[in-house]
Design brief:
With about 160 residues, the chain is an alpha+beta fold. About 30% of the residues lie in helices and about 25% in strands. It has a single domain (about 5-145), classed as Endonuclease Chain A (Endonuclease, Chain A, 2-Layer Sandwich), CATH 3.30.870.10.
Length: about 160
């Protein structure tokens, strides 16, 4: 599955590759992340404003960062007709980006919160896309839906 995958191991290049996948030719995107990267979230916001259907799963630290950074529109998914956000209470050192059902980006982080990418694997291999989708769906089932408010719920 990994034979034709691109592996990127520089944090700056990883972000560039992730942004390259957020093109207006997409019909749907899904993302799981446990790091907060303002540039990436602003790119996703642009796609949502254009009406691209999508969903995101973040951990509690990212959820709080979004609120603190003034990106409350991600926390109240009712602001976007075709967007859902959920959160996990558990920290992860993994990220998954699914671009339609044709590409997957799987990132490994060195820590949760504001950790840097160690590496990211990008592939359009059907078996790897399916594996990434199944893993994403596993976390999706465990994610709590975001409350429809502009502030994170108190713990």
């Amino acid at each position: 599955m990994l034979a034709d995958a691109d592996v990127v191991d520089s944090p700056g290049i990883v972000l560039g590759h992730a942004l390259d996948r957020c093109d207006i030719g997409l019909s749907r995107f899904r993302a799981l992340t446990s790091i907060y990267n303002p540039t990436l979230f602003r790119a996703y916001n642009t796609l949502l404003k254009l009406g691209l259907p999508g969903e995101a799963i973040v951990d509690r630290s990212v959820y709080t960062h979004l609120y603190d950074a003034g990106l409350e529109h991600f926390l109240d998914d009712s602001d976007y007709e075709d967007f859902q956000i959920g959160h996990l209470d558990e920290p992860l050192t993994l990220g998954i980006g699914l671009y339609d059902d044709r590409k997957v980006a799987i990132g490994a982080y060195n820590e949760v919160g504001e950790g840097d990418h160690i590496a990211m694997c990008i592939s359009s291999n059907d078996a790897l896309v399916e594996w990434g989708t199944n893993l994403y769906n596993h976390y999706r089932e465990a994610a709590f839906p975001a409350p429809h408010s502009s502030a994170p719920a108190e713990e």
